[in-house]
Write a structure and sequence with these properties.
This protein is 44% helix and 15% strand. The chain is of the alpha+beta class. Among the domains are: 140 residues, no CATH class; 69 residues, no CATH class.
Length: 340
């Protein structure tokens, strides 16, 4: 269940016209509204008679803990409690370390890195943990992007439940159709075959989703051109002696359009895997990356391939520096491992 405070507007000012106080107030208000995004669902959808609310000083024996909500401020708090580094990337820090997103935040998903990069390029101050969280059944990251001149900004959550992404939903449906048992948790108990089946279906679903998102305008243009070609062919065919030119007219329009579409640079939600992904790999952690590539048929160690961690949880092997790109001539190799 998700709740999102899409936008909050308010008119405020400091009595003494001190801009620093005004900015500080806007920051505090944003943090408060972000906290409501996890606190409201926790209080509204949990029954104290059936579970113990978080922070209850007098829990009822025998009752489980209530499910917890997540927000950007809570995610950062959990990450800090786990001992993670919390980065506050100001304009000065970013100017001195322009590659900080790829170097310090490489454990995060492609989408998270991309959004953080866009915020920094726009002059915002970003606060984020060094790697994603795995909290109960939720996997993702929370980060804050603040305009330092006003104190306002975005309090963003990236991620979802394990098995809650589009790819995993499709995977579960397909595997149920195939009558494969996927109700047993993957970690430590699932067979390699089941993990491989889940990964193959979820990655393919994600790949198709990324392709459709990238090419949707081209698809519409392509369909429009087909309709134009059909109409043109009908008109040409109605002209005396025009039937011979009909096929040529369609052949000129359609192949050129398809060829241009394939040259488009499309992105896929994958990034080069890091120690975080390898240590969380399932069904068992990956301790020797080079041997892992050899076992998957992509050795020797000097071979030009990277292990990529994708948003759907899959670990795939792709050509060096190609993790975030869609290459029509080289489909990634889907391994039997997942990082979430």
């Amino acid at each position: 269940m998700n709740i999102d405070i899409g936008h909050i507007r308010n008119v405020s000012w400091a009595k003494d016209n001190d801009d620093t106080k005004w900015i500080a107030y806007n920051r505090l208000r944003g943090q408060y509204m972000s906290a409501l995004e996890h606190a409201v669902p926790e209080r509204f959808f949990n029954d104290p008679a059936k579970c113990n609310l978080q922070g209850n000083s007098n829990p009822t024996a025998g009752l489980p803990e209530c499910p917890q909500g997540i927000s950007s401020v809570k995610a950062l708090g959990i990450a800090a409690a786990q001992g993670q580094r919390i980065y506050t990337i100001t304009r000065k820090v970013y100017s001195e370390n322009p590659g900080i997103v790829s170097s310090a935040l490489s454990a995060h998903s492609y989408d998270t890195q991309n959004r953080v990069q866009q915020s920094l390029d726009a002059g915002y101050e970003v606060t984020i943990s060094e790697r994603p969280l795995i909290q109960s059944v939720w996997t993702g990251a929370g980060f804050i992007s603040i305009d330092p001149q006003t104190g306002s900004g975005g309090y963003t959550i990236e991620g979802g439940t394990n098995g809650g992404s589009l790819g995993d939903q499709v995977a579960a449906k397909v595997l149920n159709i195939l009558q494969l048992n996927v109700e047993t948790p993957i970690r430590g108990t699932a067979t390699m075959a089941t993990t491989m089946a889940i990964t193959a279906v979820s990655f393919t679903s994600m790949w198709i989703s990324n392709v459709v998102e990238c090419y949707k305008s081209d698809f519409l243009n392509f369909l429009a051109l087909i309709m134009i070609a059909i109409a043109a062919a009908y008109i040409i065919a109605s002209i005396p002696g025009g039937r011979e030119a009909t096929g040529a007219a369609i052949a000129i329009i359609i192949p050129d359009t398809a060829s241009a579409a394939q040259q488009k640079d499309c992105q896929i939600s994958c990034s080069k895997a890091t120690r975080f992904h390898f240590s969380n790999a399932m069904p068992e952690p990956i301790t020797d990356v080079e041997q892992f590539k050899i076992d998957e048929g992509f050795g020797p160690p000097t071979s030009p391939f990277d292990v990529c961690a994708c948003e759907d949880g899959s670990l795939v092997i792709y050509s060096v520096s190609q993790c975030g790109r869609i290459n029509w001539k080289n489909f990634p190799h889907v391994t039997g491992h997942r990082w979430k």
